[in-house]
């Protein structure tokens, strides 16, 4: 938020935060500071969150709210997804000669990936993938 306050002034009040200011600040971040569009979005989400907190605390007036339909709308840009390929995941899954600590970390990481995966090609969990992974049961489950 230091960047916003240095741009808009440390003594800025909520009613002074309007659509033109937000648009100019977004352009400033992107073109003068040479930051990515996602960075601009992150700043705007933060400003909006602080503004919303001010509304709840009755420190700002709802009529001055600069976000929403017909006002400043935060548009999240398409993200460039960077990740491992299926082949790379299979290499990790079949890695050999790892020490016990590295094998444990890899097993836990793969398990968390399998449980949260949205990639249907790699979603199925087979019990043999879990072999060697210590499972701790509570007294009630034993």
Q: Can you walk me through this structure?
A:
GO terms for molecular function: DNA binding. InterPro entries: DNA_brk_join_enz, Integrase_recombinase_N, SAM-like_dom. This is Phage integrase SAM-like domain-containing protein. By secondary structure, the protein is an all-alpha fold. The protein folds into two domains: 63 residues; 45 residues, no CATH class. Helix content is 46%, strand content 0%. The protein contains five helices and no strands. Helix 2 packs antiparallel against helix 3. It is elongated, with a radius of gyration of 24 Å. The relative contact order is 0.08. About 6% of the residues have low confidence.
- Label the structural class: mainly alpha
Helix segment tally:
5
CA radius of gyration = 24 Å
The helix content is 40-55%
Q: Report the mean per-residue pLDDT as an integer.
A: 83
Extract low-pLDDT stretches: 120-128
Summarize this structure as a short list of keywords or feature phrases:
142 residues, mainly alpha
């Amino acid at each position: 938020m230091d960047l916003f306050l240095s741009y808009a002034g440390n003594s800025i009040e909520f009613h002074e935060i309007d659509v033109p200011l937000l648009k100019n600040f977004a352009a400033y971040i992107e073109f003068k500071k040479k930051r990515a569009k996602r960075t601009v979005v992150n700043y705007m989400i933060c400003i909006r969150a602080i503004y919303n907190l001010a509304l709840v605390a009755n420190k700002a007036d709802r009529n001055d709210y600069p976000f929403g339909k017909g006002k400043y709308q935060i548009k999240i840009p398409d993200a460039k997804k960077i990740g491992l390929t299926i082949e790379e995941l299979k290499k990790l899954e079949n890695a050999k000669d790892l020490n016990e600590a590295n094998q444990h970390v890899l097993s836990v990481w793969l398990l968390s990936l399998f449980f949260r995966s949205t990639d249907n090609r790699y979603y199925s969990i087979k019990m043999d993938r879990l072999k060697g992974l210590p499972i701790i049961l509570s007294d009630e489950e034993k």
